[in-house]
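Standup notes
- DV: blocked on the single-chain target, sequence here:
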Amino acid sequence: MLSILIADDHAIVRQGLKQIVSGTEDMQVTAEAASGNEAILRIREAEPDIVLLDISLGDRNGIDVLKQIRREHPRVRVLMLSMFREDQYAVRAIKAGASGYLNKQSAPSELVSALALVARGRRYVTPEIAELLADSINDDQDKPPHELLSDREYQTMLLIAAGKAPGEIAEDLAISIKTFNVYRARILEKMALKNNVELTRYALENMLLT
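- DV (later): unblocked, structure below
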């Protein structure tokens, strides 16, 4: 029996995912978590085969949680779930060690297929994600500026563009204001932008905000 842990900060989403999994033979949800830190604890307790991990948790970013899972539990496979479009986080998630990336708007049958594939030790990659992965192999000079940012810098950029205040961003990312200022400076330098207004305009023009 394939054991699955669901990590999502919305109870109604966890319940929906649980219903989908419970209607599938040879799969069962053995644990749930409402935050990134709780997910880490539950994985240590339940030792699931697969983690369904939301990329946007209340206390931590899912990419950070994914990296910790891969460090501490390399045997555990992680299927990322997100409301974000594939071009925003899919490539970063796969490169960070995810076994797949699935949009929450996908059909239940697609989730079941993804779980079955991941359970066999393979990666679940849609044609759209495969194309993005292929494009990511290009030289840095061929990449748009935001793809040159680190994962944490990219997270910071999206939060700035979304209009969040520095204090809120620092709290969301569990960093100090000083560290936030360092990230912001790096982002502006790497992207050749002057201020938050230009950064926000860039994010809007490139459809990086949902």
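- Follow-up: The chain has a mean pLDDT of 89.
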